[in-house]
Amino acid sequence: MKASDLAGKKILVMGLGRFGGGVDVVRYAAGAGARVTVTDLASEAQLADSIRQLDTCSGIAFRLGLHDPDDFASADIVVANPAVKPDNRFLEVARRNGRIVTSQVGLFFQLCPARIVGITGANGKSTTTTLTAHLLRQAQSDRPYGNVWLSGNIGDQPLLTIVDRVGPNDVVVLELSSFQIEQLAELGEAPQIALLTNLTPNHLDRYGTFEAYCAAKEGLFRHQRLNGETPAISLFNAEDEVSAGWFDRYRGQSGRVCMKFSADDVPAKFRDVYQLPGRAYLSNLAGAVAIARNLGVRDESIEASLPQFQSLPHRLELVAEGHGVSWYNDSKATTPLSSIVALEAFDRPEILIAGGYDKHLPFDDLGRKIAQKAKVAILIGQTAPQIAQAIAAGSNGRSQARVEFAKSLAEAVRTAHGLACPGDVVLLSPACASYDMFENYQQRGHQFAELARGFAAEL
To answer: For the segment 9-49, what is each residue's pLDDT rounded down to a tens digit?
Structure first.
């Protein structure tokens, strides 16, 4: 597909989104000369911020507060938001009428002329993706590729805003969610280079079972093209059970190079200059290094670029220090495993703030880890009682963790400040999504950081 193929076509964008998820598609399609209709179950008032971003686009029709089957039956192309399930009944209407059903990420793959690196996983994918782009961008001038682009489920450059600037010799590094991978699988698309960080239960409110979640993620490898000019490269975390099993499944296939990586692979010279704490971050580094080496980046260049790489916002981010206490914002930790990783990153006494929106994930392992590692657990949100029960069940009567409850994040931070001693770490690592109390994890993290800086600065 080329951009010119959209000219004059009737494009239906399903799901504008309150955070602008569909804005990128609308702008691109309108700019290509398509006749664009936006349909969303939310109201005009709820979508005001996203609609405002389309002020410069002309000729867009809005169908808000409902979905009309006739719109799906008559559109030439339906572009669905990642939050829309593949078996959505309105998408089925489009398919029954012979309409093309695609997505933002699907359009990008069909339009992009460059090599694409796709990174996914339950945890660590944002850091691995950003670190990979960093290593590739900082490579010395003899690198065998052009510009490096970072996008996907991360970054401030939506996919379709960059696609017309990407050259055939460039490299595009994408973080891909399970939802996006499902959309690519419908089109039989996948990146030339694919990496899995790990897999643990997540999004069970959508998938129902861990097996279904894994099946969605596996599309990243299942649809890699094995008959291209260069082999597909598939990279798997040797320390993760699912990932290691997929390595065994896919290795030996003609047209595919399979590789394993682990934290133990990271050379000492890299560890010495790498700033991020904990074994999980070393695993992220191992994956990023494997990709960089496959794209021709030399170890000398990797070593030189590592000191400049910092943790991402809301991911074990040091946001305040004062009175001997360090405050870390790990609001992006929306699964129990993410919070386990955070707890394991420190050898200092930890006061953990956890809890939030219920995604129907088990907290058994997290409860055991809190009982072993935390000095205090301050619990908030819908899942606070469940996490408390998991701590009690996982302690075998020997828990060192004191459990407190708070009605708000502000109350939790105030409680943490009152209990913290010099040498302690106060860690916001919720293990849950934020939707019961906040618009998103970013808002949660920003509030924590602001509160933490206030207490850290107290005389």
So the answer is: 999 999 998 766 799 999 999 999 999 999 999 999 999 99
User: Which pLDDT value is given to residue 397?
Assistant: 65
Output the DSSP codes for 330-364.
-TT--SHHHHHHHHHT-SS-EEEEE--B------H
* Domain 317-456 superfamily per CATH: Mur ligase, C-terminal domain (3.90.190.20)
In angstroms, the CA 162 to CA 173 distance is 12
Q: Is the pTM of this model over 0.70?
A: yes
* The residue count for the chain: 459
Which tens digit of pLDDT belongs to each residue from 347-378? 999 999 999 999 888 999 999 999 999 999 99
Q: Would residue 374 be called left, alpha or beta, if left means φ above 0 and alpha means ψ between -120 and 50 degrees? A: beta
Q: What is the Rg, in whole angstroms, of the alpha carbon atoms belonging to the chain?
A: 23
Determine the longest span between alpha carbons in the chain, in angstroms: 69
Three-state DSSP at 109 gives helix
Specify the DSSP class assigned to residue 164.
Answer: G
Helix axis angle, 441-456 relative to 409-419, nearest 10°?
A: 40
Residue range 107-308, CATH number: 3.40.1190.10
DSSP 87-105: T-HHHHHHHHTT-EEEEHH
| 3-state SS class at 403 | strand
26 is written with which tokens? 């609308």
Residue ranges of the domains in the chain? 9-98, 107-308, 317-456
Q: Percent helix, strand and coil across the chain, each rounded to 5? A: 40, 20, 40
pLDDT of residue 201: 84
- For a pLDDT cut of 70, what percent of the chain falls above it? 98
Confidence at residue 35, expressed as pLDDT on a 0 to 100 scale: 97
CA of 96: how far to CAs of 83, 91, 374, 436, in Å? 21, 9, 55, 37
31-44 b/e (C-beta count within 10 Å ≥ 16 → b): ebebbbbbbbeeee
